[in-house]
Amino acid sequence: MGKITLSQVTKSFGDVQVIPPLDLEINDGEFVVFVGPSGCGKSTLLRLIAGLEDVSSGRIDIDGAEATELPPAKRRLAMVFQSYALYPHMSVRKNIAFPMKMANVPEDEQKRRIDSAAKALNLSDYLDRKPGQLSGGQRQRVAIGRAIVREPAAFLFDEPLSNLDAALRVGMRLEISELHERLATTMIYVTHDQVEAMTMADKIVVLRAGHIEQVGSPLELYRAPRNLFVAGFIGSPKMNFIEGQTAEAHGAHTIGIRPEHIEVSATEGMWQGRVAVSEHLGSDSFFHVHDTGLADVITVRASGEIGFRHGDTIFLTPREDQLHRFGADGLRM
Amino acid sequence: MSTKASRAAARLMISPSVILLLGWMLIPLGLTLYFSVLRYNLLMPGDNPFVGFENYSYFLTDPGFTAAIWNTLALVLGVLVITIIGGILLALLLDQPMWGQGIVRILVIAPFFVMPTVSALVWKNMFLNPVNGLFAHLFKALGLEPFDFLAQAPLLSIIGIVSWQWLPFATLILLTALQSLDSEQLEAAEMDGAKPLSRFWYIMLPHLARAITVVVLIQTIFLLSVFAEILVTTNGGPGYASTNLTYLIYVQSLLQYDVGMGSAGGVVAIILANIVAIFLMRMIGKNLEA
Ligand SMILES: Nc1ncnc2c1ncn2[C@@H]1O[C@H](COP(=O)(O)OP(=O)(O)O)[C@@H](O)[C@H]1O
Ligand SMILES: [Mg+2]
């Protein structure tokens, strides 16, 4: 149904190559997340798949058929835009009906699909309102509803949650995940937020400057990041990187250790430092440790009961089995 | 403006301009109303007796009056239709990325800067003249009889000239409106399977509704009082064929030195303008609400 293959796809705007040759396979029913810093070409890649931009070279296959030259409407993909792109002068019902109207779906079938989408998305009470009278979360749902009723081969989402507040974001994240479970349709989801990527994805594609840095399941990326960039990007708080003698002692140029893989103690440990900032979340505490002689700052994560204050001396012991070793070229050893 | 004190201060501060504006409008309006009920002809000096509605009945029964009303409406409607359809098409065209966009846009706007008398003269002498005009040459080149536009189709010619003047205005307003359309909406519609014509009809046109309303309202105000173009081309003729209400008032008052009659005509014009305004607001006013 929704298998998408990119082969040697490139995209240039004028002289600037935004996407260097890129290969990617997205399997039917997969939830794939493109993640990377702002400006790395995630949206461009999504728009290439959608057909809103022409590829400069390369080939795109959807469902085993070449789609490189196909116009967007013929690709059977539905897209949810960051700005939602609802039609402001149409009611919610008309917005959702629009793609079906364009496809000449019979009226009663339209009605059936609108009603079921509205029920699934909790929009039944709002069908006759205009988008301007809805909250951000509701608009988001309308945009998703408009995508669902087309029964597409795959859904494309471009940072759909970035305009929502934190609480709504968590809620919508769950709703989109549930939607994926229920429909089992391929979904491609673009975000710069690694938390969204980790929580939602079957497969994460980490991008930097148009390059694919690594493709893998969330846990694969977490456990075995292929290079320094992925190691630093995936995981929160960020992995600590240590260079110099300590790293050389482990036979590496750089070693990385995640904050949650460091034991803390007030009395003894491998490294000694001074707590600069402590953040208590209740369940966890984060300590930003200075003056270790290893790096400017080492972040550690400890259970919420442990209390260090600003200025306290703290001893850190990394778990040797969780050390990540990287060579001078930045690649995992 | 939330507290009582600040509201009072605001009223106090805007009062000079409000009073000035009221005086500016009410005094001339009052004088016009006053003159319209007097027998007041400059060719017959003396006292100016009160005659009630005599001026009005003369003006309304003038053989040119009905013709002038219909001509006024035809002129306004004709120009509106031409400028809005033409303006939308031009705006769509100018919105396309192309080489020399800036210059082309300035050129398109240029007619708006030509004063009405001049543009009407240019049209009369350079284009429409049955002997020397470009159209006459064109007709001759095609082996056709030259057409005397201003004599054969005076009102249509004037509609053409006035449309030419107002097309840039409509284009400019509609172009800016078009440029404010979120491109993601168009892309969403494209992905939803809307063909270019459907995208125009379902996405662009509703987005333009407010701008179109603004164009209609502003142009109507000016088009109700078209005058210079008629004066320098047809003089309202032949007969009353191209006389609109403004021109009729000019003929009645200035040409016959009849202040009373002209004032009555002016009052009639105000009433007509208000009727048109009420109709317009009923029909399209809701587009202006946010
Ligand atoms: N239409 C365009 N013309 C020129 N450059 C563009 C265009 N669209 C995107 N770019 C450039 O391509 C790069 C990637 O953009 P984008 O895909 O939007 O990044 P992301 O979505 O990851 O933040 C950016 O450097 C951006 O400036
Ligand atoms: Mg983007």
What would a concise description of this structure say?
The complex is a heterodimer of chains A (333) and B (290). By secondary structure, chain A is α+β, with helices and mostly antiparallel strands.
Structure notes:
The complex is a heterodimer of chains A (333) and B (290). Chain A has 333 residues and is of the alpha+beta class. Chain A has 2 domains: 4-231, Rossmann fold (3-Layer(aba) Sandwich); 238-326, Beta Barrel (OB fold (Dihydrolipoamide Acetyltransferase, E2P)). Helices cover 27% and strands 32% of the residues of chain A. Chain A has helices at 42-50, 92-102, 107-120, 136-148, 166-183, 194-200, 218-223, 228-233, 245-249; strands spanning 4-13, 16-26, 31-35, 57-62, 65-66, 77-80, 154-158, 186-191, 203-208, 211-216, 240-243, 254-257, 262-265, 271-280, 284-290, 298-303, 313-318, 324-326. In chain A, the strands form 4 sheets. A 6-stranded mixed sheet of chain A has the order 6-7-8-3-9-10, with helices on both faces. Chain A has a 5-stranded antiparallel sheet with strand order 13-17-14-15-16, with no helix packed on it. A 4-stranded antiparallel sheet of chain A has the order 2-1-4-5, with helices on one face. In chain A, helix 2 (92-102) crosses helix 3 (107-120) and helix 2 (92-102) packs parallel to helix 4 (136-148). Chain A is globular, with a radius of gyration of 23 Å. Chain B has 290 residues and is an all-alpha fold. Chain B has a single domain, classed as Orthogonal Bundle (MetI-like fold). Helix content of chain B is 73%, strand content 0%. Chain B contains 13 helices and no strands. In chain B, helix 3 packs antiparallel against helix 10 and helix 10 (196-223) runs antiparallel to helix 13. The two termini of chain B are 21 Å apart. The complex binds adenosine-5'-diphosphate and magnesium ion. Residues 13, 18, 36, 38-44 of chain A line the site of adenosine-5'-diphosphate (ADP).
